[in-house]
Design a protein that fits this description.
It is a multi-pass membrane protein. The protein is an alpha+beta fold. The protein has 8 helices and 12 strands. The strands form 3 sheets. Strands 5, 9, 10, 11 and 12 form a 5-stranded antiparallel beta sheet that branches. Strands 3-7-6-4 form a 4-stranded antiparallel beta sheet, with no helix packed on it. The chain has a 3-stranded antiparallel beta sheet with strand order 1-2-8, with no helix packed on it. The chain is rod-shaped.
């Protein structure tokens, strides 16, 4: 048995067994002692014109003309072997876990049922030679009668259904397992650091690899739109996953390399990504719980400097509290407020120094705010990366199991071909 899915042709090497009684070929063995059987060519005696109706062979009748064996009672037996090529409507719905049923319809070409009554014997598959691609399940047969409007005579035929199951080991090793590995590599896109510069390249490479495998499947499948092969559905699903992962990677890179001067992060993004999703994924911002404890404020200071007010400058101590420590202390005088009339009427050089210090404090504060905003966008990108890793992992597993195990004979194929 050889199945050509591309051309939807089944090639079988079988023997036909036809027998009938011919009363004109009887003889008396007593008159012809020792003559038990005679052999005639098909041109010398009558033979039924049995043909394969759904033949796809160029010669139509591909049987080898052997001799007709006749005994003294007139019983004739004709055993023509042949390599039959028959049309077979291939159902690729569950490929490569499919079972094909191909018909072999035999009948007379010129005799009706009143002149030639066909009777069926069960197909003998004891001499079947195992095939590396197909397992023969059975060859059930049935006798049918057809009636046409032109004639009242019946036209019988004998139809055998060759039922074969595809052995999936070859396709699993060469198509399914590589596809599963490629789909697993899709998850590595979300593991690569955003600064590596290879996230998009990896996604595009996996997408191109899946396209090559889909072309291999298309070469062996018939060009039919009746159904989509199971493996084609799986490849299409994985390609959708890879395409969505590339889109998600673009969003991650946009967040990671976001310009801090381009605007603040929206409040709803901070609430959803930085709080809810980050809490669900058990993610924390770097240094979130590592803030050093600040020393308590001195009682003689009016304000304490904090991380959020890096430009704040404490006021000098009250000279009445520490009279022994404020003599000639120009440093405290330089940090006094500009509204202080003492500083306003003081040395111009001291005022210039104070302006420079305030300018530097403002620059440091702006720099800290810019870095904090950049870290915020990067952390949001990392949260999206982790979320996509979890979501695509779950979706990939569900997609693989649900599609492949939807085949009716998936368990049978696994038990017979892989165990």
């Amino acid at each position: 048995v050889l199945q050509d899915e591309k051309n939807q042709v089944l090639t079988t090497n079988i023997w036909l067994r036809m027998s009938w009684f011919d009363h004109y070929l009887q003889w008396n063995q007593s008159e012809h002692p020792g003559v038990k059987n005679l052999r005639f060519t098909t041109d010398q005696v009558w033979t039924p014109d049995i043909l394969l109706y759904n033949s796809a062979d160029d010669d139509f009748d591909s049987t080898f003309k052997t001799n007709v064996l006749v005994n003294s009672s007139g019983y004739a037996e004709y055993l023509p072997p042949g390599i039959f090529m028959s049309t077979c409507n291939v159902d690729v719905r569950w490929f490569p876990f499919d079972i094909q049923r191909c018909e072999l319809k035999f009948g007379s070409w010129t005799y009706d049922g009143w002149l030639l009554d066909l009777q069926m014997n069960d197909a003998d598959i004891s001499g079947y030679m195992p095939n590396g691609e197909w397992d023969l399940i059975g060859v059930p047969g049935a006798r049918n009668e057809a009636f046409y409007d032109c004639c009242k005579e019946p036209y019988p035929d004998v139809t055998f259904v060759v039922t074969i199951r595809r052995r999936t080991l070859y396709y699993a090793l060469n198509l399914l397992i590589p596809c599963v590995l490629l789909s697993s590599m899709t998850l590595l896109i979300f593991v690569l650091p955003a600064d590596s510069g290879e996230k998009i390249s990896l996604g595009i490479t996996v997408l191109l690899s899946l396209t090559v495998f889909m072309l291999l499947v298309a070469e062996i499948m018939p060009a039919t739109s009746d159904s989509v092969p199971l493996i084609g559905q799986y490849f299409a699903s994985i390609m959708i996953i890879v395409g969505m992962s590339v889109i998600a990677t673009v969003i991650v890179l946009q967040y990671h390399h976001h310009d801090p001067n381009g605007g603040n992060m929206p409040k709803w993004v901070q609430l959803v990504l930085l709080q809810w999703v980050a809490w669900f994924l058990r993610m924390k911002r770097p240094g979130e719980n590592d803030d050093p404890e600040r020393p308590p404020c001195a009682p003689h200071l009016r304000r304490c400097s904090s991380g959020s007010q890096s430009g704040s400058i404490p006021n000098p101590p009250d000279p009445t509290l520490h009279p022994a420590n404020n003599n000639g202390n120009l440093l405290y005088m330089g940090f006094q407020s500009m509204d202080d009339p003492t500083v306003s009427s003081g040395d111009p050089q001291l005022q210039a120094i104070l302006e420079e210090v305030r300018y530097m404090a403002d620059r440091f504060r702006e720099q800290d705010e810019t870095e904090s905003m950049a870290d915020q966008w990067k952390f949001a990108g990392a949260v999206i990366d982790r979320l996509c890793l979890v979501a695509f992992s779950v979706f990939n597993i569900i997609c693989t199991i649900s599609i492949l195990m939807s085949a009716p004979n998936f368990v049978e194929a696994m038990s017979k071909d892989f165990v």
